[in-house]
Design a protein that fits this description.
The chain is of the alpha/beta class and about 160 residues long. Helix 2 links the parallel strand 3 and strand 4. It has four helices and ten strands, in the order E-E-H-E-H-E-E-H-E-H-E-E-E-E.
Length: about 160
């Protein structure tokens, strides 16, 4: 199972200046719980915005730079190779960035979308692709109101390929 996991705004905003635009501790806690023990696949920019391999996960970085190396990570030059490296993991997560999301969806490599919908619009320079309801069916949704720790209303939404 290959799952894209992403937090996106109402206007599909993902980030700006290679960073997150908002801070939702509930989303970060869920991300850690869901991805722990699994392979997380990401582009080089996403890795560099995180800055280090995440604990209890196998970090796979996708980059065209043949000389790129990161201690504690697997580096490959294509999404297909990244998925192949992780093929024995029953749950592979693609965690970004925008180009990786776009390519994996367009290449039909994804089985599921695990989306945190932030109920606000933001100025951004990277966006998540439109979720096509002809391809994706919403199968679960949890709604949350803003609170003292989480500034915005948000939802956890799961989609499966039809």
């Amino acid at each position: 199972m290959v799952t894209i996991i992403a937090a996106i705004a109402n206007n599909n905003a993902l980030g700006k200046d290679n960073d997150l635009i908002w801070h939702l501790p509930a989303d970060l806690k869920r991300f850690k719980k869901v991805t722990s023990g699994h392979h997380i696949l990401m582009g080089r920019n996403t890795f560099e915005s995180i800055g280090k391999p995440l604990p209890n996960r196998t970090t796979v970085i996708i980059t065209r730079n043949k000389n790129y190396k990161q201690e504690g990570c697997i580096v490959v030059d294509s999404i297909e190779k990244a998925i192949d490296v992780a093929k024995n993991d029953e749950q592979i997560f693609i965690i970004g960035g925008a180009q990786i999301y776009k390519q994996t969806i367009a290449s039909n490599l994804v089985d599921q979308l695990d989306i945190t919908q932030v109920h606000h619009s933001f100025d951004a320079d990277v966006y998540f692709p439109e979720i096509d309801s002809d391809i994706w069916k919403e199968v679960a949704r949890e709604e949350f109101k803003a609170d003292e720790k989480n500034k915005y209303d948000f939802s956890f939404i799961s989609y499966k390929k039809k």
